[in-house]
Amino acid sequence: MTEVKGGRRQMYAARTRADILAAATDLFATRGFDGTAISDIGKAARASKGTVYHHFADKQEIFAEVFTTVQSAVMRTALDAMAAEGDPWARLHRATRAFLRGYVSDSTARSILRQALGVLGWDRVRELDEATALPVIRATLERFLADGEIRQVRVDAAAQLVFDLYCNAVLVITAAEDPDRAAGDVETIVLSLLGGLRPEGRADPGPWTEPDEPESGAVGAGR
Hints:
By secondary structure, the protein is mainly alpha-helical. It has two domains: 9-56, Arc Repressor Mutant, subunit A, CATH 1.10.10.60; 58-196, Tetracycline Repressor, domain 2 (Orthogonal Bundle). The chain contains nine helices and no strands. α5 runs antiparallel to α9.
């Protein structure tokens, strides 16, 4: 019986924490960090101010977790694109587009990222980003190197530089008045720079484009 009660308490605590983070995400995105008080988060999450402080030391800690959650969600879209079948570089193109476009389609992600440096500071933002993205970039480069898809380079150095490239790319998008146009420009630049890692003589597959939807009356449609 004690174990059952303990399990219920843990489930309730996890649900309360999730509600606090969901409320904070919405408030930070719409009102901004400075315009949001702990009491506002508690009210939106239907939790007392004391309950919020039970789960988080302060508002900055809440923001850090919101930032990580938002970044991880965008990263997952890139990983899903990378997992599809096809030429490795075509998959990388798809993943890059999914990652960059994630900050176009998700206004919350843009808002949180725009505030992150001011709220958390450069070192903390970089630490959180590295924990989320750097292992993925390093593993991808290691696989590409083993398969002969990139030149013989030191993976650690290459991973750090590619990580910096993507980080700065999304900052350009989130700061732009027209994120969609900025994403298109940034995508071209990022893929061109990454293409420099390809071994000499290996043809670039070119920019990946969405396949056209077949017209309803097209021959073979629906087969």
